[in-house]
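User: Hey, quick favor. My workstation is busy. Could you predict this chain's structure for me?
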Amino acid sequence: MYRLTEIKLILKEITGDSFMQTKKLFWLFGCIVMCWLGLSCNSTPGEKLSSPPGYNLNQPRILKLPSSLDEISGIVYYPKDNSVLAINDERGWLYKIFLSSRNEIQKWKYAGGADFEDLVLVDSTFYVLQSNGTLISFKFLNPDSAKATNYQLQVPGSNEFEILYLDKERNALIMLCKDCQADDKNSLSSYAFNLETHSFSKKPAFVVDVRKIETLMNEKGLHFKPSAAAIHSVTGELYIISAINKLIVIADKNGVPQKAYRINPKLFKQPEGITFSPKGDLVISNESADIGAANILYFNYNENR
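Assistant: No problem, here it is.
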């Protein structure tokens, strides 16, 4: 890969013109690259985008993470000690990140390597979602030993998942498709894992109509690829975030979109996890995306805002 100084020299050779012309061309090249990465096409630099009720998504508290968590994915808020439990995309480790401390992180091994996407904690049992639709259920017998059970969703075809969240009313975990063979570009299916019977629903729990999101965003041809979701602890709404689209969609518990908000790609460089504190504070994890460090964004909730 070329360094920036090398690219400048190449551009100068191509143009054969003055340094100022080269500089302009280099600036244009940079803009094209930024758009290709999805970093600047959907919002103006410095633009303050609108936020869901109760939040200011332009002003987070930012907690930078060490390189071991560059590919942080699913997270869940742990109210007993104001921490976040998290998983890494490719490593079978459970991490505890203390939000009040920038240095204290604990970890425990629960599995070997795989493509781990999301995390839910129900009582003392953890559930981790793999991208192929496998659920790993585990408990720690002691700090050095975890007892795990695998459950495989039986859905024909090639399927990719990144979302797992708890729906207390259904007494179920909900898996939302990112890219499932049974869906088309206008729909995303979800599947429920019953926590009492430890079995998956045979039919979709609900289907998200992507066309409704297009209407909310006034945008045609939207290829919505969600990366994380959670139910708001105060309002009961379903928050769905998409790293690719740089969107937060608020839906009801049946997946019907109600509102949609663009999010600033400078802050939300690759959001892969979302969770809420009991009082409604919003926590979002960003992978490093090869742009600085991975981080956690913390947004205070004020229902009167």
